[in-house]
Design a protein that fits this description.
- By secondary structure, this protein is of the alpha+beta class.
- Helix content is 35%, strand content 11%.
- It has eight helices and seven strands.
- It has helices spanning 33-46, 117-124, 146-156, 163-167, 174-185, 194-207, 218-222, 230-246, and strands spanning 3-9, 18-24, 69-70, 73-74, 95-99, 108-110, 113-114.
- Strand 3 (69-70) and strand 4 form a beta hairpin.
- The protein starts with a strand and ends with a helix.
């Protein structure tokens, strides 16, 4: 298939960006979206032009690096990561707009690459366990109720791609932060830091400049790993609980 790509080009964080149009020919429907961009970049390099910068790493839908907005949708028309989006979901002659994540807390570095270090700072504020847990215990040595185990696994699937922020009209990081908090707060190993974790991570999230949550649900709809909107409600309950215990 032959496609017209309108891609956001921005040489650096301080420069003004603009949409630039490119033509790509003979695209196979079996290609991933990133492979299609690789073809474009090979052509640009051969012509002596600057290739399009975009984040990518594992290309297996695990690392969360490959975020971009495709035709106004985070990761594109399918509920998956950009690297797992195949060109069969597009048609010959389509015009495809490709932009970086749009959020105040995710400044553009170059072209489609944004700085997502705000997520790292949120994790550093409490997304870990420091209590000594010793060596790996025998199976079932630490009883965990099945609903808690299911909730922990469900939230642990978050890959930190940022699609929730890009899809939210407020640029909120509540779904990401709630996944990281709920993953640990329901497990026995996470109890010693349960209150400090939620207080510190939410404070860091607010300081990073993310918007507030108004429960529009766009974050959960865009999440490629299916983190549910209910995770935000659980985090809010954890926050109220921690606030009362801290006497705030």
């Amino acid at each position: 298939m032959n496609l017209t790509l309108r891609i956001w080009r921005q040489p650096n964080a301080d420069a003004e960006g603009q949409m630039v149009t490119y033509q790509v020919a003979d695209v196979s429907g079996d290609m991933s979206f990133l492979e299609m961009l690789d073809i474009l970049n090979e052509d640009l390099i051969l012509r002596g032009e600057e290739p399009v910068a975009f984040d990518h790493d594992c290309r297996e839908g695990i690392c969360g690096a490959c975020g971009m907005v495709i035709n106004g949708q985070a990761h594109g028309p399918e509920r998956t990561t950009t690297c797992q989006l195949h060109m069969r979901h597009f048609s010959d002659g389509d015009v495809i707009d490709i932009e970086p994540w749009r959020a105040g807390a995710f400044p553009v570095v170059k072209d489609l690459v944004v700085d997502r270090s705000a997520f790292d700072r949120i994790i550093q504020a409490g997304g870990y366990i420091t209590a000594p847990t010793g060596t790996a215990p025998d199976a079932h040595a630490v009883p965990v109720p099945k609903p808690d185990a299911d909730s922990a696994f469900e939230n642990a699937t978050c890959i930190g791609c940022g699609a929730c922020v890009a899809a939210c009209p407020n640029g909120s990081a509540m779904l990401f932060t709630s996944a990281k908090i709920n993953h640990l707060n329901v497990l026995p190993q996470g109890q010693p830091e349960r209150e400090s974790r939620v207080l510190n991570m939410i404070t860091t999230m607010d300081e990073a400049g993310f918007g507030g949550c108004t429960n529009t649900g766009e974050c959960a709809a865009a999440c490629p790993k299916g983190i549910p909107l209910a995770s935000i409600a659980k985090m809010n309950r954890e926050f109220l609980r921690a606030t009362r215990k801290a006497g705030r």
